[in-house]
What does this fold into?
Amino acid sequence: MRCSAIRREPMTEAHLPFLDSLGSPPPDALGALRREARARFAGSGFPTRRHEAWKFTELRPLVESRFAPAAPGPAGDFAPLADADLMVFVNGRFQAETSRIGTLPAGVVLCSFAEWLSRDAEAASEMFDRGGGAEHAFLSLNAAFAGDGLVLLVPDGVALERRLHIVHWCSSASASSSHVKHVFRLGRGASATIVESFGGEGRYWTNVSETLEIGRSARLGHYKLQQESLESFHTSHLALSIGEGGDYAGFLLTLGGRLVRDDLRAQLTGAHATCGYSGAYLLGQRQEAAVNSLIRHSAPHGTTRETFKGCLADRAHGVFQGKILVDRIAQKTDAHQLNKTMLLGDRAVMDSKPELEIYADDVKCSHGATVGDLDETQLFYLRSRGIPPDAARRMLIRAFVADTVELVPDVTVQAYLIDAIHHRLQAWKD
It folds into this structure.
């Protein structure tokens, strides 16, 4: 056996230029927390492929970039959901003049994170991750630099009848960064529907951290459309807890971005909790997108459904790393995980790693992954009916991806996502 020393880069020196380009943390009541978070990142730097959760993600394009703090700017062209409350964030800052909020039920708190921080700095500080090490790098950067975001607090028994649409828009003449912190908390028996959409123009980096707490018997539909600029970078971390009988229905549609990374850390803390986390992706050119999820069952009779499907064209790279972990106490768990990818180019690559880690002995759990290409028989059938080749390909791709979108129980949101898929396919070059 031959052993060799591993060269370890001095993280502090290597990443200080990147850190310095981000400017100074906001001067607010979280000063000590922000300084600690900045120091944690300076000491650890970014994760590398030696970290298991990051072994398939190539961060070099992001690490080698420099991003100045994003300046205020106007909102771009976006399509808001009809009959929904609207919260607009431009370059990471809440834009009240573009937002529209109707009358809310008594006790509901819906405001910007900056406003919440001014009201209750102690509660705001508790929502930031304090973990160390390179694997927490993006959370540390978010804790250090997040200047705004959204806070939604729904008290026990309250149902929000209107959907909440959160629009994120970024645009800058030069490379810039925005760090956003969201907090969603639903009390016992509460319910809400949240739709997030991300878009922009130019070269920029969006770094989002979300903390989401679902109380006993509460229900949340949480749907995300990511169609950032093809020059942009997008990193996102969702920390989710689901109480007894709680129900989370999440969906992620990834269409844009040069480098995209979505992390989920979910824990089913109460019996009979349900976690649905699914998504679809359409990537082309040199796009790279990764989903890394850990769903932990820590109580009996829990249910998880996780399905991700998508298509990769040109030299795109997709990553799915999903683990379902079942603690010994979580008997009668029912969990299923599936990843299916269609490769549309000889140089497209998919890395898929579904995992089950089970310590209970009375469970029903399964996982699977498939990678293939377009069905030539189906393509021939459509062409034999007079459909042009490009149109036939788009029809098959749309049908493959739309099958996953149908997991979204809200038909209005379904239509919104399918329309985005249609426009993305129209822009593809065959």
User: Anything to note?
Assistant: Residues 1-11 have pLDDT under 50 and may be disordered.
